[in-house]
Amino acid sequence: MKTAHSITGNQEAAWHLETRRIEPDAMQVVFTGRWCIDQDLPSSAALHAELTEDLRRLTFRTDALGAWDSGFLAFLAALRKFCVGRGIVVDQSGLPAGVGHLLTMAFAVPAQKVSDRTGGRQTLLVQVGTETIAFFRGLPEMLHFLGEITLSFGRLLTGRAQFRMSDLWLEVEEIGPRALLIVSVICFLVGLILAYLGADQLRMVGAQRFIADLVAIGMVREMGALMTGIIIAGRTGAAFAAQLGTMQVNEEIDAFKTLGISPIDFLVLPRILALMLMMPLLTLYAGFIGMLAGMLVSTTIFHISVFEYYTETIQALELKHFLVGLSKGSVYGAMVAYSGCLRGIQCGRSAEAVGEAATSAVVTGILLITITASLLTIIYYQLGI
Amino acid sequence: MTNEPHIKIDNLTMGYGDFVVQHDLNCVINKGDIFVIMGGNGCGKTTLMRALVGLQRPTAGTIFYSGEDFWNVPQEDQERLKRRLGIMFQSGALWSSLTLAENVALPLIEYSTLPPRRIDELVSFKLALVGLAGFEEFYPVELSGGMKKRAGLARAMALDPEIMVIDEPSAGLDPLTARRLDDLILELRDSLGTTIVVVTHELASILNIGSNSVFLDNETRTMIATGNPREALKSGDPRVRHFLTRGEA
Questions:
Q1: Residue extents of the structural domains in chain A
Q2: Fold for domain B1-84+161-249?
Q3: Residues of B in contact with A70 (CB under 8 A)
Q4: Any idea where the domains of chain B sit in the sequence?
Q5: How many interchain CB pairs under 8 A, A with B?
Q6: CB B123 within 8 A of CB B161
Q7: Percent of chain A scoring above 90 in pLDDT
Q8: Strand, coil or helix: A93
Q9: Distance in angstroms (rounded) separating the CA atoms of residues B89 and B244
Q10: CATH class, range A2-108
């Protein structure tokens, strides 16, 4: 076989490859010209057809070989690998000393034998099955984590929990005051939407002044807690997962364990406490902002006086509405903290895993909020609250 | 090794804000040198490395690559110069979402026109060279620290760079693997003529592979010696000798 190739615009000699039968069972490969990575070098597969079954030995000749780099080495390494597979002895003595040394180094450590890791493409059914099994396998882990948190609360009540109050206040500051702006914006808009929606329906029966009732009860009882929960799931739940996940990657959580300090006490407990403390306050604030938006729409668009709106709101709101809203806020806070910390603690040991943990924390948080919102609504309805 | 200057560090000062890490560094690294940056913990070895590879602008002074002022050339020229460098970070700095093969292949895919089959051959060879043959489909998270480091070296070698900058190559490796890596660094210099800058405080490595060096001092915050580390062991500055003999001299 004789193969030649030249590179357009390249002033140096192009690579050239030639094979010779030097003995009935031995072949010599003659390399000439420049064999560098920036050229369109051939693949070693170009020689496979020449390496017939009767061949027992392969030698090289490189007297006229010009510059070379790892492009040449990779060609030879792949060729040698193929020859070894075919039982052909490769005689490296004809190669430049540096090439021989580097090739010997490359083959000094035997290749790791691993089963097929590519796995092939899974069908949709297999994927659904795998995900379902993974979900149900994850349930005991979620319950275990819940149990650990419960025990940690037990230690807190008996004064044995190992955590720093300064961490708790830092979390309180991060979750509460720093979230006020985004809670204000979202809840103002939700209050505005509720007012418009109510006005449209109530106008048909001439009861527009009941916009105040709708907005007040809607925001204080349901929407304030729900919207704050969703905001906090995206803002704080993801942050919890990313913080704890990064600590997992850096082996900081392992360091706590080896010192006999419970990472649940030290890391998870302050976060859950902070959210459970701040969520009711944020919920109250969200309700107030929503009502403010409702009042603004009612007075400016639907010509209801401020006094009328205020009086109607006071009449509509009862203590039970506040209690329902606050209890929901607390529960949603606990759900967000639980999902954020759970996904952070479960995080793998790579940067990618931290991203997945943050995403999963938000999804789990919102899912848990939705489920508990439905359950609590049914329970409060049955109790007549 | 030739006497042709490849990298020239000229009155270099580095720091963070008002804090000066090292000042007035001057040295010449010739083509084919294995240049060791050594010194105690916190003396600024990694900061110097970051300045050399374009990650941290020096507060004063210049770095020349083959006569080109690295920090004062236009952005596109600096990018061109960067492509002549292969960098291995201390932890390996592998991209966690890519397999080892993909990690090594990425520079080849981005900066060459090689067909996929040739890239596969090159990737397999580079991984074999660092003793990771057969690990092509593994993800970084599945590897030990030493393996990540070696894979990082394979990635640094991907484009056959003229200059390789290697941060702590043998830290955390078993003695045999560390020796093997030292041999590989020597072979890359001898066979391919690569200029290699190594940041290390592994004494065995310094004496085994170093052909030129700079010693950064913690107290004076500047270089106190430069030259062949084996010479420094015999007749250099007493502080350098103290360091190289683990405090025995």
A1: 2-108, 128-383
A2: Rossmann fold (3.40.50)
A3: 122, 125-126, 157, 160, 192
A4: 1-84+161-249, 91-160
A5: 100
A6: no
A7: 51
A8: helix
A9: 24
A10: alpha beta
